[in-house]
Amino acid sequence: MPSETLWEIAKAEVEKRGINGSEGDGAEIGEKSVFFIGSKNGGKTTIILRCLDRDEPPKPTLALEYTYGRRAKGHNTPKDIAHFWELGGGTSLLDLISVPITSDTLRTFSLVLVLDLSKPNDLWPTMENLLQATKSHVDKMIMKLGKTNPKAASEMRQKIWNNMQKDHPQDRELIDPFPVPLVIIGSKYDIFQDFESEKRKVICKTLRFVAHYYGASLMFTSKSEALLLKIRGVINQLAFGIDKSKSICVDQNKPLFITAGLDSFSQIGSPPVPENDIGKLHAHSPMELWKKVYEKLFPPKSINTLKNIKDPARDPQYAESEVDEMRIQKDQELEQYKRSSSKSWKQIELDS
């Protein structure tokens, strides 16, 4: 018998959670899921490997990948399980978002959005497309959960609001918390720190606004061991429920580190644009206004991300002899069919 693949393990775990979830309300089952999405080649795999203490070179994520980690809360106690999902391809594989997010996993689910700070022109469209697609699916799953367990769905919404600080009550009227815990990570800070001061200011203020609007944590990282350790602590909080960090850094000349709820719109300030230009920007919401200001300095590039996706079936890291042999056979049959079809059409032309 061949050993189980990670997909089979993941499927078995999801099915087991579904069974466990039907007994009682299933809110605390010692399992959590963390879903990494974000910029292509943005460093998602590197962060996951660092969190799991795996000393191995990261491989490109072509579609959707799964791994897991275990951690004991104390001596002689069962180990909690954390399921790590990673979406590859940037924004080109949005349909796969629905795979790890189900009504069964929803209550113990967290989202990590990794954005490549070294590519500011791609930052807003990547962030916007991924967050909109994910939020849309999560909202559908909450509605589905509400039909079978309205109490659990209501508790989910209330829990998100409870995580917001009460020091700035006026902000609560303007924010729209993401339906599951969200962490936004700006990667490649080592490149970003060499940007011009004005560009760094716009990127920092914009990401602070977006993070605070969605009730998310925001932090920057790079290959620096000190920064990776801070990120690891944040991810471990999502995956295993350890204590949340209360530290904060809002200095644009340093790596940002802001835990959800600790920022405020008054501290962030208005969009970084001359006052006489604000009136010229026609926007229907604060989010749209910040988008227009950001894209004025960093206009998005029109890139067909699908062109950059290689065929996973031909990638050697996914080689499976039996499947590959069958694939070769089918390819040969297809080529033979094409040749025979071509001959048939030529014969028809000659006869006519």
Question: Can you tell me about this structure?
Answer:
This protein is of the alpha/beta class. The chain has one domain: P-loop containing nucleotide triphosphate hydrolases (Rossmann fold, 3-Layer(aba) Sandwich). It has helices at residues 6-21, 44-51, 120-148, 150-162, 189-192, 197-213, 225-240, 265-268, 275-278, 286-297, 321-351, and strands spanning 31-38, 64-72, 79-87, 109-116, 182-187, 217-220, 248-249, 257-258. Strand 7 and strand 8 (257-258) form a beta hairpin. It starts with 5 loop residues before the first helix and ends with a helix. The relative contact order is 0.11.
Short key terms for the protein model shown above:
eight-stranded mixed beta sheet, about 350 residues, P-loop_NTPase, alpha/beta, cytoskeleton, globular, 11 helices, Rossmann fold
Kindly summarize this structure in a few lines.
The protein has helices at residues 6-21, 44-51, 120-148, 150-162, 189-192, 197-213, 225-240, 265-268, 275-278, 286-297, 321-351, and strands at residues 31-38, 64-72, 79-87, 109-116, 182-187, 217-220, 248-249, 257-258. An 8-stranded mixed beta sheet has the order 2-3-1-4-5-6-8-7, sandwiched between helices. By secondary structure, it is an alpha/beta fold.
Describe the secondary structure blueprint for this structure:
Elements: H1 6-21, E1 31-38, H2 44-51, E2 64-72, E3 79-87, E4 109-116, H3 120-148, H4 150-162, E5 182-187, H5 189-192, H6 197-213, E6 217-220, H7 225-240, E7 248-249, E8 257-258, H8 265-268, H9 275-278, H10 286-297, H11 321-351
Parallel strand pairs: 1-3, 1-4, 4-5, 5-6
Antiparallel strand pairs: 2-3, 6-8, 7-8
Helix pairs in contact: 2-7, 3-4, 6-10
